[in-house]
Amino acid sequence: MTAKTLAPPRSFRAHRRRRARWGLALSAGLTASVAVVFVFSLSFGSVTVAPTDVILALIGAPAEKWHTFIVQDLRLPRAITAPLVGAALGASGAIFQRLLRNPLASPDFLGVSSGANVAVVAGFALWNLTGYQLSLAAILGGFATAAGIHLLAGRGGLSGHRFILVGIGVSALMASATSYLLARSTVSDAKAAMSWLIGSVGMAKQADIIVLAVALAVLLPASALLGRRLRVLELGDGTATALGASVRRDRAILILAAVILVALATAAAGPIAFVALMAGPISARLSGGAGESVFRAACAGAFLVQLSDLAAQHLLATPISTGVVTGFVGAPYIAWIIVRANRSGAA
Amino acid sequence: MRRRTLLSSLTALTAAALVLTGCGAKAKDDPSPAGGAWSYTAGDGKTYTADKTPKRIIAHAYAAKALMEFGIKPVGIYADGKVGADVGLKGVDFTGVTILGEEWGKIDAEKAVTLAPDLIVADWWPVEKVYSGQEEGVEDSAKKLAELADVVGPAQGDSIVGVIEGYAKLAESLGADPSVIAAARGKFEEAKTRFQAATAAKPNLTALAIGPYDNTYAIAVPKYAPELLDFQKWGLKVIDPQKPDPEFPYWESLSFENADKYQPDVLLFDDRNHPGNQEKLAAQPIAKSIKAYAAGAMTTWPAYWLHTYSDYTAQLDRLTAFIQGADENIGD
Amino acid sequence: MVATAEKAPPGTTAVKRIGLGGGLLIALGAVAVLAFLSIALGSRSVTLQTVLDAFFDPTATSPDLTVIRDMRVPRTLLAIVVGTALGLGGTLLQGVARNPLADPGIMGINSGAALAIVGGIMLIGVQSAAGYVWFAFAGAGIATVLVYGLAATGRDGATPVKLALAGAAVTAVFGSVTSAIVLSNVDALNEMRFWQVGALSGRFMPVFWQLAPFLVIASLIALFAGRPLNTLALGDDVARALGQPVALTRTVLFALIAVLCGAATAAAGPIAFLGLMVPHLARFICGPDYRWILPYSALLGPVLLLACDIAGRVVVAPGELQVGVVIGVVGAPVFIALARFRRLVQL
Question: Chain A contact for B9, CB < 8 A?
Fold first, then answer.
């Protein structure tokens, strides 16, 4: 094995090059898809603006004056939020799944997103926090929950699927707390409360979008770089240490990044179900031989949320929350995990 | 369904194109008052001016109703609920008017921009310092409506009459016929005199304005309900609840266990969700301990929606008849 | 699963039997005391004398007496029958699924009932609890079959993790559809938003009389399920060898669960975790014999529900906290502790 790493045979090196090229092409393709859907999401609405006109309006040379208002003022915030939130969730889910070596280890099941959600709701219901303060509250809530689960895991860590059960319990606890806070809050508009509990990219405020964009710009490249080391980590702690990687530090940084990303996504759009769960595996499946990558998982997440939000806005007569659609899509995926686990005989 | 939205947006676009091209020419034909320059001092205290009288108006549905009574028809409206189900919009003919929203906080600004409005009309709320449709908590796209044109309107205050007169003034500035306004005002004044006579004949009659829902017996605070303030001014003793809710002082909320705290001679139900709210109270066993309820002494009150003299006249006449038949010895 | 004991559950000695019987009496006493407190406490303060008058002086009338007789008594009675139904339902579920984490809330049974009720309101305009209940039965039944069927595929049967996951998946789909309907329909929202949280207040004698027959009859039948559950606990093969028609028993028990949980949900909204906690509490007191667990569950259910309902009234007086929220706050940590510390993966 060591000999192999030191002097890879010709064919192996060629294979690796091919894999890298395929990975690059795939990343480019995913990015392009996200861009295309982005333009389309700016195009549809109660008034349709042709995609070419959308681009003209974006670069400041609109075909009709009112195109600018519709495209830039009305639709742009939501159209930007969807891929940002999706990318944050996708990256964060992929990191959790790889570090915990479990396809179910997404923030949905770990309770991290519900922890962030409680903090946000408490922030605006109890202390009238706004803007950046809410983002901060979300991060604190996410970390508090993550720390709580870590403590519950104890020294040996939570073995097998047990931490998923713990996570489901934590999520339920947080859900109770959230519905209590919403019931007590002065903003007791039932409908607003319900959309908040489900999550919708239409809710994002400007401050949320800015914070999320900055966080992604910093954390996504950082975790993508660390992702190379992640592959090493995947060999297991023992092997990785032997190879000299400072496993503990990398792990801590990655978890930090993942929690921040999911917390900020939640602060912007509420809990959008199952995107973090699905994005990683989807991109991995697409990647085939190219291996997994945090960046591609982020792209897949962005794409998922974009499509879900388009469906949420236009499929029914009345627009619904984005989280309703992702929940509807994600559940069959869980069912598939269960059935597949059965077939391979290891649940 | 997809096709329908596509088609309708196409027609909207065509209409918008027609409007955008034809607008300038059409304005010249209109006989604009006072040489065409327009100015109006709105409820927010600012004076708004324009080179020519605004023609393409988007209005909150209640404001639209007020303007339409005086002959000014908007091109688009937005309502707080389903237009057909809103008691405050009963009998209004909105054919030819584009409906931009039928839910509080949601206004289709995309459609609004294709209407090319030159004025937006809504009530000004002096406490929140905001126009209807721009309140805190509405969707961002609703707030964007204000970027399309100036938002104006009279201030909500301590009397419905003030609001209606505000709309009368606005309508006049927009070209309404003053004699139409005077006729409506005259009929209302007569109804008001009859109402005052009825309350003067029953000086001890007390009333409680309520809006029971889910788990709560909510009592309206007259201080924040201009029509109830009017009734008080005109001789009806509408009870002021002792402990308005600290964060939302429009109501005092009691649990149903305490619903017998006030014992008026007559109950006035919020008519926006009547008879549902009366059924909610009827399902509560405590209802029989509220003497007015047990005696069947109850009717509705026009809650927070009056914007026209014709509506106010009809409501006053209805209440006058009710008061004439009421017993002032039921409550405590 | 008790190391798959080869013999029937340990026969109880006479002394132990007396002890357990005495325990049942104490539990019954607790129900009585809590029922009295539930009648005496509330947002309107009444004297002890008035409470006594309400029962011992049937001719007296006053607003105070109306509140006690017609408002607090029905609420208390409803809490008792719903508590019993959920306690028994949870016990049956854990017994028949041989799974210590089975709970009507976590397994998505409540969400099935909720969806069916919303559908009923939407499609047929159902208004009364008597109308709800049939939809609730159907929805609860479908969800039970779906979740258990999904989780039970494969060799190792319905493991705790698979059940929880299948429950999460089914809850997500049903929840998505429910929210889509509710968010786009104001009437359904108004009906639902109060019911959704799980509450006992505002439900009076008519609701009680409409649902009590189902709850009482199903509870009585459930009390006799001790022997078949004991046999099932030995595993399907042993049960079959002992002459038990396993498939038939399962079907009947699942039907009972659907009726108990469906009716309880129709009466009080979705209340999670009660069905989880009660059987564990009962098992802690009386050991693994279902002939004792069932009567204990039938009494401990109302004890917990009444206690949480009273707590909800006292903690945030003069306001009120819905009982579903209180139970969530109490129950989720129990769930987490069970998932964390019990050796359940073997069960």
Answer: yes
